[in-house]
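A common beginner's mistake is to predict each chain separately and then try to dock the pieces by hand. The better habit, illustrated here, is to supply every component at once so that their relative placement is modeled jointly.
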Amino acid sequence: MNYNEQRKLIVEFGRRLYQNGYVPGTGGNLSCRIDKNTVLITPTGAAKGHLCSEELVLIDLEGNQISGNRKPSSEMPMHLFVYNNRPHINAVCHAHPPYATASSIVGKKLPEDILPEVILSIGDIPLTDYAPPGTDAVPKSLKEHINDHCAFILRNHGVLTIGLNMEEAFNRMETVEHFAKIFYISQGAGKINHLDNSEVERLRKISKALRQGNKS
Ligand SMILES: [Zn+2]
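With all components supplied together, the output reads:
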């Protein structure tokens, strides 16, 4: 995929995040890997529903700005941490979807053993330690989780998802939020039935094999 197509994808998925209500105001940020050493990222302070491709900023993996008139996202260290630790990951999506962010505020980890399809598509979703947004503490809070997961709930903040491409990162964001919403509803609806340990283990194995196969 060429550079211009990647720029269009960030604009398109920024609009979809906004339409879903995941990035009100100027919240959230998106990036994709252009080649081995460069990453295209959204600028700081921009509404993700109304991005122009000219606003996007090209940076290298050390955070040096290569092109673009705007400043890169304040969450650049978090994005670079992902690319530097997961060489096969090509897209990073960060948003503040309401149900998943609410779970981050009450400090309730989304249980792994409820929905088989979430185990298969995403696996366990860790809840990170608190880190002030836009600081180097954010990548530090991801350190123990980055190698084994593709979606992360950032405590008192929001959600981070990663993928082989922008569509996969976005789909994971939608899946996490949908799961958080279902979990919230089910808590008020009655007793939650958890899957048996043996079934969780079986699903984990399939999920792990799938994600190891494509390194996502
Ligand atoms: Zn944020």
